[in-house]
Amino acid sequence: MNDLQVVHEDSHLLVLDKPAGLLCVPGRGEDKQDCLSARAQRRWPDALVVHRLDMATSGLVLMARSLEMQRALGDLFAGRQVKKRYEAIVDGSMPVRDEWSLIDAPLMADWPRRPLQKIDAAGKPSQTHWRVKQLLPERNATHVWLEPLTGRSHQLRVHLLSIGHPILGDALYGTDDIRARAPRLLLHATMLEFAHPIDGRMCRFESAPPFG
User: Fold this and answer.
1) End-to-end CA distance of the chain, in Å?
2) Active-site residue numbers?
3) At the N or C end, where does the chain have fewer CB atoms within 10 A?
4) Do 94 and 142 form a contact (C-beta atoms < 8 A)?
5) Following CA atoms 58, 104, 152, 48 in sequence, which dihedral angle do they give, to the nearest 10 degrees?
6) What are residue 119's DSSP bridge partners?
7) pTM of the predicted model over 0.85
8) Which tens digit of pLDDT belongs to each residue from 118-142?
């Protein structure tokens, strides 16, 4: 398969909309070679990975079309100069506030249970802003906006779990009930915003979540 949802294409970079269940880069084993980067490189041989989404997460992925652009975009991510927004549907009713709330909890690998992550005082600093988009009382759930300030592995999933609101459909961190309430992880990367490294113009790309 080589189906790609192209959100933006220019001579320097690509923005693709990754479906849930597709790896960003190849995994170990023959069965894990089909991935977003391989599909992109069949169409654009110069496409290079800049950042990743979890296999279970859908949404916007940025790729570079040269080593120089890969470095420039990587520097933007490292310097927290890329604004990222996600949407998720989580268990329970979260408090509705006009302002964004902050989860500030350090994360580290849960080595005996890899690839799981856990909150630990010895972990790397990790911060996530969240805000309610819509309460879903008929589902005992909440549709939330999420803006990670850091980019740790599984950050959004573990942070929401830590405050008692796991993401529905989470096969890694959810209970049997949480897994059964959605056919997939209900987490989608909906927005990327950054200054284009070539001319400095602000670029904003959006993708509506395929769930509601």
Assistant:
1) 27
2) 54
3) N
4) yes
5) 70
6) 107
7) yes
8) 999 999 999 999 999 999 999 999 9
